[in-house]
Design brief:
By secondary structure, the chain is an all-alpha fold. The protein is built from 5 helices and no strands. The chain has 2 domains: 87 residues; 74 residues. The longest helix has 37 residues. The radius of gyration is 19 Å and the shape is globular.
Amino acid sequence: MPMTIRPLLAAGFLLFVVGNVMAQPGPPPDQQRPFERIERWRKVRLLETLNLNEEQSARFIARLNEHDEAKRKLLKEKMDAIDKIERLVRNHASDKEFESVFPEVMAADDKITEEERKFFDGLSDILTNEQRGKLILFKRQFELELRQALREVQRRRHGDDGQ
């Protein structure tokens, strides 16, 4: 497949999935399902990008799944701390109360960064340096495409399609 078509297909798929997520009138019956589709698509694209053999693919996906689960737990921890801040703001809490929660958010960020570093460094026994470089580039491109797809869905939902 020509390199100019692949990004268009990826963006089109992301737009389709994100559009379906955003078009739900309320929480979807299975809230995880649309996001699981995006995750599956991310993994397929990652395997294509990294051009892994069968053994590398199995080891990489197992490691990626562990990393994703650890990161999900850490993000929940961060969101819980941010929820505490939200409650403090709503209740017009004292400075002392705020100051006791801020370190929780910063600590969660530090843990997320450390998890990312450990994951990346730990891939050196599976991936070549070039493949690890491709992983970094993939993450940037995938996040950019996802943000663009979300913006496009929001633009369409608000009728700002320029017509």
